[in-house]
Amino acid sequence: MVNFFILFGLLYFFAYKPILKMFDERSRRIKDSVEQAEKVREEAARSDEEHRKKLEAASKEGQEAIARAMRAGDEARRRAEEEAKEQAGTLLDKARQEIQRERDESIRELQQEFADLAIVAAEKVIEKSLDKEAHRELIDKVLEESGTLKTD
Q1: CB atoms within 10 A of CB 142
Q2: For 46-100, what is each residue's pLDDT tens digit?
Q3: Are 139 and 119 in contact (CB under 8 A)?
Q4: pLDDT, position 91
Q5: How many CA atoms lie within 13 A of 22 on its CB side?
Q6: CA distance 121 to 25
Q7: Are 102 and 110 in contact (CB under 8 A)?
Q8: CA distance 19 to 25
Q9: Is 2 left (phi over 0), alpha (psi -120 to 50) or beta?
Q10: Between the CA of residue 105 and those of 22, 101, 118, 145, what are the distances in Å?
Q11: Dist CA 78 CA 88 (whole Å)
Q12: What per-residue confidence (pLDDT) applies to 127?
């Protein structure tokens, strides 16, 4: 038993301290590795969060750009519609004026032809009882009166 205690003392003195030192060193390395792994995990989480925020910002910016483009397109379409309506109104007014002008011109031409025919017919009927100028004035006066009656 004395040998056992001597062996135990020698082992304690020569082996136990180096073994404890080796275990302490191994424990420290494991602890450092765990701390390093935790730092890497935190950095990865932080990096992941930054990427997520950047992705959200890019997505939001893209949606805003799409919304701006949609608004610009709607505004351009609205302006084009207004311009088209304005041009159509202008063309319609011009067409109405042209139709009215041609109508008035046709009426004047018909009145002139009618006056000329009436003069020729009256000349034949009356056989020159009135001169041509007096007869024309009489017919023009009748046509003017009939024209004001029709337009009223």
Answers
A1: 12
A2: 999 999 999 999 999 999 999 999 999 999 999 999 999 999 999 999 999 999 9
A3: yes
A4: 93
A5: 6
A6: 140
A7: no
A8: 10
A9: alpha
A10: 122, 6, 19, 18
A11: 15
A12: 55
Tokens of residue 9, six digits:
């003392």
Nearest in space to 143 (alpha carbons), one of 113, 123, 115: 115
In this structure, what token pair is assigned to residue 71? Answer: 């608004």
Q: What six digits make up the tokens of 115?
A: 């006056």
pLDDT tens profile 90-136: 999 999 999 999 999 988 888 888 777 777 776 666 655 556 777 77
Residue found by looking up tokens 């997520």 in the block: 52
Structure tokens at 12: 């304690």
Q: Return the pLDDT at 149.
A: 53
C-alpha 52, offset from chain centre: 31
Half-sphere exposure of 80 (CA within 13 A, CB side): 6
Rg (CA), the chain: 57
98: enclosing H helix or E strand: helix 17-126
